[in-house]
Amino acid sequence: MTLDTHSETALDHAASPEGDASHHGYITDKDKYLNRMKRIEGQARGIHKMVEDEKYCIDILTQISALTSALEAVAVGLLDDHLRHCVVDAARLGGEAADAKITEATQAIARLVR
């Protein structure tokens, strides 16, 4: 979404943290994210089965590490999309909307690095 061609949409989205789902930065990659999440769900089910079947601890931990990495990759992708679209649009508008989006992104990053 560019501010020049969608300024009213960008303004509405920048002012609202929730925004309209059709305007989120990730929307162009929605199918990619949904496919990744399906694979992650499968990994989680696989770990559940490993515990159920009393598999070796290290093998379970290895799968948990892979699951964690997969979730982190999705999170970083969503954060990148958010910064490139939602935050950039808000920054172009300036003012309180920009400050709110930057604060929101900073808080999201802080949650991810904990």
TrEMBL record:
Which UniProt keyword terms apply here?
Copper
Q: Which InterPro entries match?
A: Metal_Tscrpt_repr, Metal_Tscrpt_repr_sf
Region Disordered: what ranges? Answer: 1-27
| Biased composition annotated in UniProt, kind: Basic and acidic residues | 1-11
UniProt keyword Glycosyltransferase, yes or no: no
Q: Which Pfam families match?
A: Trns_repr_metal (PF02583)
Identification of the protein by name: Metal-sensitive transcriptional regulator
